[in-house]
Amino acid sequence: MDSSDKNTLSAVAPTVNVKSRGFVGAALLMVLSVTFFSVSHGFVRGVGAEIHPFEIAFSTSLFSFLFYLPWLMRARFRPLRTERIGVHWVRAFFNASAVCGWYFALMLMPLADAVALALTGPLLVTFGAILFFGEPARLRRWVAMGTGIAGAILIIRPGFQAFSAGYWFVIFCLACTAGSRLITKQLTFSEAPAAIGAWMALLQVPITFALAIFFWTWPNVKQLVMMITVGLLVGAAHYTLTHAYDRAEVGALEPFNFVRLVIAALIGYVFFAETPDAWTWAGGAIIVASTSYIAHRETVRRSDRPLGSKGTAPP
To answer: Quick one: which of 114, 150, 115, 144 has its CA closest to 295?
Structure first.
């Protein structure tokens, strides 16, 4: 994708009409994003009792892509031009696997526990960047990752409570998500962010359909509305998250991820009679603190880079 294509994408990509691009606006967008994600999880749990998670993943992918469709049509589908279609397919497989694993987890464990454990996702991405991209790993970075893992252990408490299959699905989801984000990091050196998102949404449709067809159940009107809502909420969540990160540093916004746990706990309590214990809250707080510190240090590291190094792809 050449510079003229990227200029075209900038002109036609969706934008948020926000007068102030300061931190308050970014924080509000971040809270809105995590709210959309959390509410979508509640709908998945609600419809998942009767519809297979693979089918829900397919509907999520389909209606998330429809979120991008008006923009793509206005751009005459030019954003989809790419020379790295194979990499996009690999990323879509990782992300589709993550979505399916996450939806299985939501069926098997309390919402708040699943969300709290999922907050460790940035830790796996950090570890992958160290392992595969050779990013520097100073002592305080390892300490922060170890602290986050300790928070996850507080939630799971192996040996003190039954280790349900839901925990394994969360771990599987996190591993696949980390793979997807690391591939995204490679793609951003040649592709526009909006185009990366559109390709992912598009390619996940056939992948998840191939899984869903073996477990297909025709939804009734209520179930269909809920499934459409999940897809639109997920699309809106990614959209607002992207624009939040465009207005403020990741390190400053990472603490707002704790709002996900609060909303998930509220949804679980009101609609599913689930009450998270003190260990879940403590573990979630520790995880958010550690991921926030890592994000802050990443921001500092980027600001210390010499000019001209930003566009150099990692090894």
So the answer is: 144
